[in-house]
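S1.2 Input.
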Amino acid sequence: MNNFLDISTTRQQLDPSGILDTAELFFQQCSHAEELARECNIPKLRKFDNVVICGMGGSAIGGDLIRSYASAESPVPIEVVRNYTLPQYVGKKTLVITGSYSGNTEETLSCYREARVREAQIVAITTGGSLGRLCSRDGYPSLRIPAGYAPRTALGYSIMPLLVLFERWGLLPDQSVAIKNMYKVLKQTINANCFEVPTSSNPAKQLAISLHGSIPVIYAGQDAFEPVAVRWRAQFNENTKSFAHNFVVPEMNHNEILGWSHPTAGVCKLSIVFLLDKGYHKQIKKRFKVMKTIFDSHEKTITEVESDGNGLLARMVSLISLGDFATTYLAYLYKQDPMPIPEIDMLKHELAK
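S1.3 Output.
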């Protein structure tokens, strides 16, 4: 197994659609997405009192990440909706951002129609589809992003437009330094974890091997790194076709910490991953240390993964990139093509009838 991830035919045979390619090209994707967003001519908006980002799956996680990143500085509240309906407060003074990579996500289209009835301000981020056609018909601006990706591999086209537009709308201060630092650490992370780097020196390959045959349980500090853990869990689900779980500290210390005793046959199959960050509140850092002692008493192995880079945005993205690589390598270990999502496709097909 230690050499399996270094054999070129492994990648060729198990990943014909190139999921790993998108992880290795994530820097270029983010750069292109930033360029599209800065060139996008979105008319000046009316004053708004709150922001609602609507999306599902890969289109929603970008909203989660930017909401958590911006929440400390935004002058208005930001909420992410993964559902068919909008919160009751949405109205004329709400900015509704509808994100659907395909443009055909039924939950997002439902929210779009509801936002239109309530006369909210609407901006869409999509490749086209029904959402693009509705925006053109109804006169709402949309930022068009390139088609041809699996939605989960197009995260750069979700994160960067929101980051640029939030800056433009005054929800964030100037982001030039933050983005520069993000690109720097992203290059470093990709160079350290790309396929050409052998397992002996590749953190993502080593992480995949350590998690092989177990169910990952991912713990992160609340707020900014909660959606990073959600991204990891979703990538285990979609790329690896494996079950995974994520939760946050300190909340898990008040309940889930007690759940590691029974049933013994189930708990023994779980592996623990700590997503750590130097910016955590000092009490959260202490909690992770105490948690390690508690898990040691249960004879559980813990993998600690530390964020990298200068600035919160860079540190978040460093972990996102590492998770994308590790989950793809774990798919290879399971002899699993990371691209197909048959159960999701079946659900969409049945619901469309």
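S1.4 Remarks. The first helix runs from residue 8 to 14.
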